[in-house]
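Objective 1.3, modelling of assemblies. Example input:
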Amino acid sequence: MKKNHAHNSGDDMAGFVHATGSLVKDFRVGDRVAAYHRSGHPHGSFAEYAVAPAHMTFLIPDILSFEEAATIPLAANTAALALYIDLKVPLPFTQPIQAEEVEKRREPLLIYGVTSACGAFAAKFARLSGIQPIIGVAGRAEEFGKTLADYVVDYRQGEDALVASVEAILEKEGLPAKLPKIFDAISENGSLEATLRLIDPKAGAVSTLLPPKLFAKDKEAYQYPEDVTAINTAAPKLFDVHKDFGYVWSRYLTVLLREQRLIGHPFEVVPGGLHGVLRGLRKLYDGRASAVKYVYRIEETGSLGLVRLEEDGPQAAAVSEAIAEFPFSVATSE
Ligand SMILES: NC(=O)c1ccc[n+]([C@@H]2O[C@H](COP(=O)([O-])OP(=O)(O)OC[C@H]3O[C@@H](n4cnc5c(N)ncnc54)[C@H](OP(=O)(O)O)[C@@H]3O)[C@@H](O)[C@H]2O)c1
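Predicted structure (tokens):
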């Protein structure tokens, strides 16, 4: 994606179906849905009307608010892609029935950043898949992390202590000292270095959400052992090579939500509709978001037309600068 290329960068949406394409058979006008819009493409969700492909759209039950539903599409689908396609975790609907089979499947999963949106959905899905134990790395949102993982290790204690804590958990569980699978939902600020020390060098698999070559502390030297399968999970693949998986998973999300076997991510509604988007982005950029998705109610925007930067003067300049550093930019109108 080109830097400073103006486009509507909203990718998560929830609302009523307003219209469908002529080939769409799964949805009707008026359906309550949530959807993942293809990043970098026109008609994003920071708008009154947005366009999403049918295969990445899913029906949501009446009991689920649009706000909670909007926390799900990108993060949940990315987590599913990481777990089931890239890390080859058994799918929840291929769960073994026999107890001895469950025991044979027992293998640990480390989720680095378990309180992030992608990490939290990965933990929820891993639980549905019968993965045990789930070891989560978290910090400020430790209590939330404990609702997701069997063990929570604090990243703020530093790399050596973190690695020692995980090794102690594995020993206590009677498991090998190195991990077979790691989902690194952070992929920066030391997570890559810690996971490199914890992964099984002979047969491990790691999924990252940011490319190590760009985010490792030592970008040149960072390298996985030859026998480690290292995948940079990329949600855009749900629109091409993994489109069928995206379709099936979206339908499964409907089932999980309807049966209340899945809930959204904790969220905060930022007041002011589209006028609040920059405020939310700013908090994300500053690392202030802890176990929270920022949600915008479009109807709170007020009059339609150009949405102006909220802040004036030097602050506005700082925000614009910060935005320019993002791998995307915020469109002011569509
Ligand atoms: N490759 C793709 O297709 C794809 C798709 C979606 C997202 N992403 C990327 O994936 C990353 C995660 O996105 P997200 O929306 O899930 O994030 P998010 O929910 O905004 O993440 C916030 C959480 O990150 C945790 N965190 C921050 N620094 C950490 C560290 N050093 N170690 C462990 N946890 C840490 C915090 O935990 P505490 O609150 O507990 O301190 C916080 O709760 C972002 O970089 C995003 O751009 C990539």
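Confidence is low (pLDDT under 50) at residues 309-315, 322-334.
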